[in-house]
Amino acid sequence: MSSEMEMAGGGVEDAYGEDRATEEQLVTPWSFSVASGYTLLRDPRHNKGLAFSEAERDAHYLRGLLPPAHASQELQEKKIMHNMRQYTVPLHRYIAMMDLQERNERLFYKLLIDNVQELLPVVYTPTVGEACQKYGSIYRRPQGLYISLKDKGKILEVLKNWPERSIQVIVVTDGERILGLGDLGCQGMGIPVGKLSLYTALGGVRPSACLPITIDVGTNNETLLNDEFYIGLRQKRATGQEYHELLEEFMTAVKQNYGEKVLTQFEDFANHNAFDLLAKYSKSHLVFNDDIQGTASVVLAGLLAALKVVGGTLADHTYLFLGAGEAGTGIADLIALEMSKHTETPIDDCRKKIWLVDSKGLIVESRKESLQHFKQPWAHEHDPLKTLLEAVESIKPTVLIGTSGVGRTFTKEVVEAMASFNEKPVIFALSNPTSHSECTAEDAYTWSQGRAVFASGSPFDPVEYDGKLHVPGQSNNAYVFPGFGLGVVISGAIRVHDDMLLAASEALAEQVTDEHFAKGLIFPPFTNIRTISARIAAKVAAKAYELGLASRLPRPDDLVKYAQSCMYTPTYRSYR
């Protein structure tokens, strides 16, 4: 085996034959010894069900343990998709997908990759939200690592209990702010599990290199504390020093156990902790917060694409946000950064084009003293205004972005006001799940007489208005974080730099063609997401090399080709 093949995925040996570069090679189905017979059928990584060939059944002692028929992976996929479509309740589909992942890992990913638009809402938002709410009731086998306050002082030992050593991406949550659903404590585990299945399916990061972790510091959710099926610690959330000491021990243990180049993604932490953790660890660890940075990168890509429809540059527009939490301020920051980069204007001047409204009204200079630190840069000189409608009428934004987590806040009056002074108002209603979206696609198109350039966080069906079919864009983080993660892994980056996020946005915006614009799309279709991810990975890796943050040397000549060769492929391998 050539060393090129052996070390494809970010310089880590491909022991299980997971990457595209090793597709044609024979693999030995190792677990702790060579898996055979009954244990092979119970090992999700190597199990192929009825797809084992006659020779494999003989070599691995499977005779009699399987019915005599042989079924190809394609036939298995057809059967499971047929069964999946019989379920009318989304949660039942979710459970069926999780069962498949526990039983036959490659078939699970094959299904997800080949039917991405149909199955993405099942394994991720919106269905994953309901799954987390009911996680205790539907819990079957543990997925990922649970680290709780009980493990203080022993976190390194807990990490060593995980069977895989070559971890490249960790997604960790403390369950305090799951989607728009609030504190779900230990049951937030559904989020890291779902996120990492997308890192693999959409970004091609190997499943064996992914580790979902939930840090359980208790929950303030009374319903869960009184639920007999709750799977976490039954106590109020730890805060302050106790909380930060546990996180400090965790971050140190991660670095000690997995080295400098493991990407740790913070997911669904509450605002106050999310900003602090990112600021604290971004200098010393390879960390990424999808709610702050991933969301921002996708939305910026959507705006860059929308400008091709609306005209002008980023600096020519005025932005108004409803919601000033992680997502809102994260997006605003990245817009200002991109504006500053292209106009060579100081970032503080660029911020003046961006206004934020929170639960108390427009964020203005006179409120500065009482604001949380992450809102302060957005406090500009203006009379205080209480409502979004007043802010829209006074500031006259060209772009309206909702990250409030509150449904139906873009009212008819607000959208009509946007349409009254903009030929093509840009309206992004980004809150998830669908019930929390600031307005529906139909509302946006109807109230703007079909002129809005609209995108949402959750999927909406196309809308016909005045004889024209409008296809709403979905500003889904799944466009960026899988490709971003792959880019970090293949370059061996040791830190995340904001310029890498800008590179990801620009790479995504470049994938939107004139054909897409003709349909009103400002994001490319999800169907070729793996090609999009490879291109994003290449741009992110190129930026890491340019900034001197990449440790995988020498730099491959063709980064797109290299990214594709490192991507996990779910086709069955032939066994010796």
Automatic annotation (TrEMBL):
Keywords from the named record: Metal-binding, NADP, Oxidoreductase
Keyword Transcription in annotation: no
Cofactor(s), names only, from the UniProt record: Mn(2+); Mg(2+)
Active site: Y124, K195
Reactions listed under catalytic activity: oxaloacetate + H(+) = pyruvate + CO2
Family from the record: Belongs to the malic enzymes family.
Subunit structure: Homotetramer.
Name of protein: Malic enzyme
Organism: Urochloa decumbens
Lineage: Eukaryota, Viridiplantae, Streptophyta, Embryophyta, Tracheophyta
